[in-house]
Amino acid sequence: MRKDIRMDLGIRKTVLDNGLTIFTCPMPEKSSAFALFGTKFGSVDQHFMLDGREITVPSGTAHFLEHKLFENEDSDAFKLFARTGASSNAYTSYDRTCFVFQATDGFYDSLRILLSFVREPYFTKETIDKEQGIISEEIRMYSDSPVWQLLAGVLGLVYEKHPIREDIAGTEESIGRITPEMLYDCYNAFYTPDNMVLSIAGKFDEEKTIEICREALSDMKRRDSKKLPVREGCEVAVRSGSREMSVAMKQFSYAYKEKAFPVERQYMSELYLEILLYIMAGSTSRLYGELYDDGLINSSFGFEILEGDDFMSVIFSGDSRDPEETVRRIGKAIEGFKRNGIPNVRVEEVRRLLLGDTVCCMDEPEAAASEMAAAYFKKGSVYDKISAVCAVNRQDLEKMLSEHFDSSKAALFIINPKES
Amino acid sequence: MAKDRLTREEIAPGVFYSYIDGNYRRNKLLISLRTPMNRDTVTATALIPYLLDRGTASVPDKTKLKRKLDMLYGADLQTYSSSQDGLRMVNAYIAGADETLLGAGRSLSEKRMRLLYEALYDPYLMNDAFPAKHIDTEKEVLRERILSEIDDKRLFCLRSALKLFYGDDIRGIPNTGYIEDLEKLGHDEFRSIWKDYLENSTVEILNVSGNGESLKRKFAEMYSWKKAAPFRKEDFGPIVIPEVRRETKRVDAEQDKIIMIYTAGRTFSEREKAALRVFSAVFGGITTSRLFLNVRERDHLCYYCSSSPFVASASLLIDSGVARKNHKKIEEAVAEELDLLISEGIGDEEFMFSKLALTNAYKSIRDSADSISSWYLGTILRKGYVSEPEEDLALMESITKEDVLEIASSMKLAVVERVTGEAENA
Q1: pLDDT tens, B43-63?
Q2: Which of chain A's residues have a Cβ under 8 Å away from the Cβ of B296?
Q3: Of B85, B158, B108, nearest to B306 (Cα)?
Q4: Shortest Cα–Cα distance, A297 to chain B (Å)
Q5: Minimal Cα–Cα distance from B369 to chain A, Å?
Q6: Which of A133, A224, A273, B239 has the least CB density, counted as fewest CB within 10 Å?
Q7: Measuring CA to CA, how many Å separate B321 from each of A43, A140, B147, B318, B415?
Q8: What ipTM does this complex have?
Q9: Whole-prediction pTM value?
């Protein structure tokens, strides 16, 4: 690490005997604390082995399980948290499920509640039937969102059979096939200590908190489970597609299909790819400035890396009057960087930006806990990030650039305004 | 008692400087300019922040300006317009990591401060005016933004409901302005509105960092040119709606979005506003509220149905996303829940849960530079003076069930806005 960066952010990592990892970052100056208990189990994990059995579940099962864990036989978690005043929530993404709370008073009681309800699954046919109506409405809500439909649209083009092409919440038909047995199988396979992380930041006593975690979690057992990879080819399934929605102007999503990074290098590799993207297409890039001034994009333009253990895409998206021309220019800019290399000055700018961002992120309990957990899910840590940012160099970035962004493996999806 | 109370003083005519020396890893410096809302200039003032983002006198290029910010350890410089209670604001802030953690020296915050001031008062100009090409580009960007309000159906429904609620009242003027005004706005007229705004606006500076006193002196020097005394904020009367206003907007959508606004039709005291916040929490603001437990969880009428207090207008806003077939039922269900709450009273548990949730929210306000600066700016604009989160918390804690029931009983349905994918003759 460079000598002029004095960043002891106070992060501590504890691993329980059963393999469960706990990150803590005390911030005594704050009034609240934020805790996240997450598992590396998301919507793409539909095919796995558990105790020698091969199991397949319908799309939307991880999200359904997240909803159902919020209630057990006697009570629901929202009500338990209400007694402490904590604000609680949960979410499911393509590759993880997380349960969170934020509390000022009653932090330790809230923590006990979090650690308890996630460990007490209770599923019956009746409670599942009840949830299907609510989740069906959630699916409809997302079907009206252009942002989600853009992502779903382009992933549907890029992937032929990988479950990432399916909605996180599934479909009304797929969630209708979920049974209590499936939920228990998923729970037993993935809500295990070696597949989960607990991340806590804010105002709390570190020793007392670790002690509560030990008491509550030490009896968690590992299971003989394994995700089964999806055999997906390198080529994109379809190069272009479109649909109509009630939107004011055209919106586009352009995705490069990439090979996933090896699991043990995911965090660092993704960080470098992000730096590369920022230099080439971020708000400080020449590409961005020219597209903006030519009226081809507005501030909605952006990019993201969507990566899991066996899939990766780099996606550019936003509003555009002329998506085809925008995409042509993105490709041209990338080719230009491949030919001419990356200026050193841009590397230094991004290095400083990321150092500043990391400090800022560690100022808020929620952001800090989320950052620590996100790093864990990609086999890294916040300190790894700082070290990597300090060490980033032009040569590494250029090497990465040469291995990515093959325009023959990209697809364009457009949402056109529907005539009223 | 507050850990860190805000210090606010007038450092030049119409220029107020406040700082809080909190212990933050992310610091924030915000300058908010305000004038009374004006229908004729709202579109021009909506455009101003877009032009300010194009560069400054010393860095006359948008891309280079952003790169300079990156070199200042990712300083985040944002300009935006806002409106509240009949006031029109043009705001700019710069935020970034605490310099002591970065080992970057004390000069970083002063560099950020000068860049912020320059962005507002010394932007990139040609012949004392914004370049014509920039104005035309940004007018188009703003036009697209106004048109794109239809993209997010929930927000579109909310904006439509507020328009219906306020009618011609000045408080209902949209923050983004009007497309028809944008098309007519000439370059000279825009320049004149912008100059006038700079001269006559009242300035509110909020500094959440570790060097409040030294920046105060520097700001006092920088604003020595300012002559305009602060203007007096107008007191607006209540919004009175004798008959329920209804509107249906048809779009391509799978799920209906319905916004209902209940209002008391009178102005609330500070205590009544606190009671409205508790009422909202009990009724639909949290996951143990009536609307969440009964309308969503028990009756399965919707994916979401929640309430939020709309204190400036003594109103309660109900926001729901429902299956098309249930759109009439949701309105009936909300009305029924309100009747039941008034007739049966409030249970001890739900009252306690609501107060605990609000307490948690108030106590968290100081945890980030963003939330504490929004809090202070909000209270200064709303009340005209500084109010600490702990004072509002104490007032909320003193609210009784009777206070809440009195507020609930005063609420009458005023607006029902529906955005639907249903065909006209269905």
Answers
A1: 999 999 999 999 999 999 999
A2: 134
A3: B158
A4: 9
A5: 9
A6: A224
A7: 24, 9, 22, 10, 16
A8: 0.93
A9: 0.94
